[in-house]
Amino acid sequence: MAYEHKLPALPFPYDKLKGISKQTNEWHHDKHFKAYVDGRNDVEKKLADMRAKGDFAGIRGIKLLESHNASGMILHTLYYDILGGDGSVDMNADIVKKIIEDFGSFELWKKEFIEVAKAARGWSILCFDPSDNRLHNYMVDFQDLQAVWGAIPVLPIDVWEHAYYHDQGPDRAKYIDAFFNNIDWKKVEQKFKAVK
User: How buried is 2 (Cβ within 10 angstroms: 0-12 exposed, 13-18 middle, 19+ buried)?
Assistant: First the structure.
């Protein structure tokens, strides 16, 4: 029997975010995010069928779909988990102290993160990398390209057009500003403490 993944509920009201509309959240969460969950479940069914038959013809295509959909589901879960706040930053939080230690200043980290978000074809992700015990801004295209093994996402921004085009059109920078105004840094702090 195939494992079934569930779409997590949006952890705040659809109209909660400033600069990211109710309509965008409905489409983004209920359509795009759900498509990754559905895609991952479809892969689970196909893999269960392959295992039952002992026939793995076409496994490469299934595994490519698995990586894409699983990564999309995981990143969207993290994305929505850290939103719903007012963007205020506690400069005494452990995550902020670690950002300053690893990037030189909070402002320099933010500038780099934004530039990565402008350049990415999918995601800019602040990750904790246990291989060097440091934070990094990693750029990931299409959910699963350029991902770094072992790195743990702490703060991701989705920069696919479905995340912002309805509200900001082609002005990705305006969306990035809106994203920062809605971060719940207490949740980011919790995630950082859990992974470090």
Answer: middle
Rounded to whole angstroms, the Cα distance separating 124 from 115 reads 9
Asked if residue 65 has pLDDT above 90, the reply is yes
* Separation of alpha carbons 34 and 144, rounded Å: 17
The matching CATH number, chosen from 3.40.190.10, 3.55.40.20, 3.30.360.10, 3.40.30.10, for 94-195 is 3.55.40.20
Measured CA distances, 153 to 20, 42, 128 (Å): 22, 25, 7
Decide: pTM greater than 0.85.
Answer: yes
Spatial separation of the C-alpha atoms in residues 87 and 130, rounded to whole Å:
27
- Domain 22-81 is in which class? mainly alpha
